[in-house]
Amino acid sequence: MSDLRSLYQEIILEHNKNPRNFRKMPEASRILEGYNPLCGDHYTLYLKIIDDTIADISFEGSGCAISKASASVMTTLLKGKTKTEAEKIFETFHSLVTGELKDVSFETLGKLGAFGGVSEFPARVKCASLAWHTMHNALDAKTDLVSTE
């Protein structure tokens, strides 16, 4: 179990240090901001949707290591997925970080599993889920700022 925990910590640290898809996207079809007033995480999410598929996804902004790593992992997982597939991954992630989903293997969740321990720290659930809720609202074409409060 400690080897798995080390792997998860490594994933979070790597995605925080070198976030994937961390850039502005001028050709985005949907742009939405997410903000966590509790800790100051603030991101802008960019989606380019073509024929019901996420053709491209990126983000920019600042926040804690967990929020940045979560946004980075999310963008790598969702690029090329349909809206329906993205919503299923969102539901799995949400169940994981809120503690509803337990006893799952790395083979099942891949890099998402790195955020399983977040459920033990309720204040960190909002950090991990900020980008995901922002993406969820952007897929629904909502335009209001997403807040964790």
Structure description:
Helix 2 runs parallel beside helix 5 and helix 3 runs antiparallel to helix 5. The protein is α+β, with helices and mostly antiparallel strands and about 150 residues long. The model has no long low-confidence stretch (mean pLDDT about 90). Helices cover about 45% and strands about 20% of the residues. The radius of gyration is 14 Å and the shape is globular.
Order of helices and strands: HEEEHHHHE
The general outline is globular
Percent of sequence in beta strands: 15-25%
Biggest beta sheet summary: 4 strands, mixed
Q: How many strands?
A: 4
Per CATH, the class reads: Alpha Beta
- Mind telling me the C-alpha Rg? 14 Å
Which architecture does the CATH hierarchy give at level 2? Alpha-Beta Complex
* Strand order within the widest beta sheet: 3-2-1-4
Oligomer: single chain
**SS summary, helix count:** 5
Q: Percent range for helical residues?
A: 40-55%
Weakly predicted, low-confidence segments: none
How many structural domains does the protein architecture include?
Answer: 1
Structural class: alpha+beta
In whole angstroms, how far apart are the ends? 34 Å
